[in-house]
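Worked example 2:
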Amino acid sequence: MRYALSLFSAALLLVTTAAAPVFAANDLEPYGTAVDHSHMKYQGLKIVMDAGGVTPADTEFQAMVAERIMQMPHAKLIMVIQGPMIKAFSKDAFIDQQGLVERIAALKEKGVQIEFCGNSVAAAKLKPSDMIGIGTVVPGAYPALADAERHGYALIKPMRLVPSQTTLAQH
């Protein structure tokens, strides 16, 4: 019986050892290298962006995403700005937010359609006439986003990924 158990143990050890992966000198690259398509140009994108930022950094990030989209050949982009950052596009805030406004204005010059959420304008106690002239005030962001989708635009909502204080404390 003892011999049978030893034989069984030896056979089990042999099978598990044979089934274990054997790595070559390249142990840190068991799957090879990814195919690089990072310079690929997507043709004719139609995108509507839900640009609902809370901070200027959020809107700057969304502008950076918009700039990259517009590098694609024949891209069409609608940027619907809504939420607390709507105030940055009021005439009264121009001096404080000039850099951000000029970045969005440059996007408009590249063909991006800029829309301001009318609900956000009203919630900020602003009127459409208070907004700078780089965009159009639409009734609401969500109806505008849905309308663009109905016309074949793909919806995106770029968001900055900011680590929480808990995550930062763990590292």
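The CA atoms of residues 10 and 16 lie 10 Å apart. Residues 51-156 form a domain with the Hypothetical Protein Ychn; Chain: A, fold (CATH 3.40.1260.10).
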